[in-house]
């Protein structure tokens, strides 16, 4: 008995080539072949577009990927610079989630942040140097100044937490936060259109710094939890 043709497996068409991924690989190869080091400038956007025969949006998508990994930075009016060497072997972890319900998305990401940020605070308290403390306090002072002037300080808050992450001397902490920020920033900037979101957590950034300065890992964990507990309370209250 002959098999019904409809029962046969379907041969599916080949997927469209991921141009952004090709550009990412090409840039990684260029950095490796040119032996670029931290601080070196990458070719300009137009030069990359011409050399790789792709559009501006594709180039920018590849650049954003490396920014999320924390390996390059773009300086306004200057160009794009390498923060650390990169190759095709560089690990990348694209994040995805169902953002249909803002409340659920925020709570899910908060669960991940709680684990990462508590550990980062503890590690920073153990490993921070005098130079680290100077940088963290500078970011904290800027955050406090802007917060008192405007009642909110999103970019300055992020800079403070990045400085804490850098004080761990484990680059993965910063890379993970950058990766999460790239994916979730539009949801975390002003959740529920509330400028006062998590405002009550403001004083605990100073006590977190004090714990890190004192080298008290458990206190750093406790202060981080106070910040994130307030964030969770506001998510639940403001989403009612």
TrEMBL record:
<dbReference type="InterPro" id="IPR011711">
    <property type="entry name" value="GntR_C"/>
</dbReference>
<dbReference type="InterPro" id="IPR008920">
    <property type="entry name" value="TF_FadR/GntR_C"/>
</dbReference>
<keyword id="KW-0804">Transcription</keyword>
<feature type="domain" description="HTH gntR-type">
    <location>
        <begin position="17"/>
        <end position="85"/>
    </location>
</feature>
<protein>
    <submittedName>
        <fullName>FadR family transcriptional regulator</fullName>
    </submittedName>
</protein>
<dbReference type="Pfam" id="PF07729">
    <property type="entry name" value="FCD"/>
</dbReference>
<dbReference type="InterPro" id="IPR036390">
    <property type="entry name" value="WH_DNA-bd_sf"/>
</dbReference>
<keyword id="KW-0805">Transcription regulation</keyword>
<keyword id="KW-0238">DNA-binding</keyword>
<dbReference type="InterPro" id="IPR000524">
    <property type="entry name" value="Tscrpt_reg_HTH_GntR"/>
</dbReference>
<dbReference type="InterPro" id="IPR036388">
    <property type="entry name" value="WH-like_DNA-bd_sf"/>
</dbReference>
<dbReference type="Pfam" id="PF00392">
    <property type="entry name" value="GntR"/>
</dbReference>
């Amino acid at each position: 008995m002959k098999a019904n043709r409809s029962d046969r497996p379907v041969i599916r068409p080949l997927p469209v080539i991921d141009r952004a991924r090709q550009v990412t690989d090409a840039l990684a190869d260029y950095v490796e072949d040119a032996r670029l080091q931290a601080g070196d400038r990458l070719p300009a956007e137009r030069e990359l577009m011409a050399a790789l025969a792709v559009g501006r949006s594709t180039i920018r998508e590849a650049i954003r990927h490396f920014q999320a990994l924390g390996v390059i930075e773009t300086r306004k009016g200057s160009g794009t610079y390498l923060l650390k060497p990169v190759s095709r072997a560089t690990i990348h972890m694209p994040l995805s989630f169902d953002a249909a319900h803002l409340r659920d998305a925020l709570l899910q990401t908060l669960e991940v942040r709680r684990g990462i940020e508590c550990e980062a605070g503890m590690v920073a308290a153990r490993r921070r140097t005098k130079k680290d403390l100077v940088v963290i306090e500078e970011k904290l002072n800027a955050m406090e100044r802007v917060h008192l002037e405007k009642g909110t300080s999103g970019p300055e808050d992020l800079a403070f937490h990045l400085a804490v992450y850098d004080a761990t001397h484990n680059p993965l902490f910063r890379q993970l936060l950058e990766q999460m920020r790239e994916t979730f920033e539009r949801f975390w900037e002003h959740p529920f259109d509330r400028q006062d979101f998590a405002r009550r957590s403001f004083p605990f950034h100073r006590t977190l710094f004090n714990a890190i300065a004192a080298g008290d890992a458990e206190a750093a964990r406790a202060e981080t939890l106070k910040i994130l507990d307030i964030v969770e309370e506001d998510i639940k209250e403001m989403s009612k």
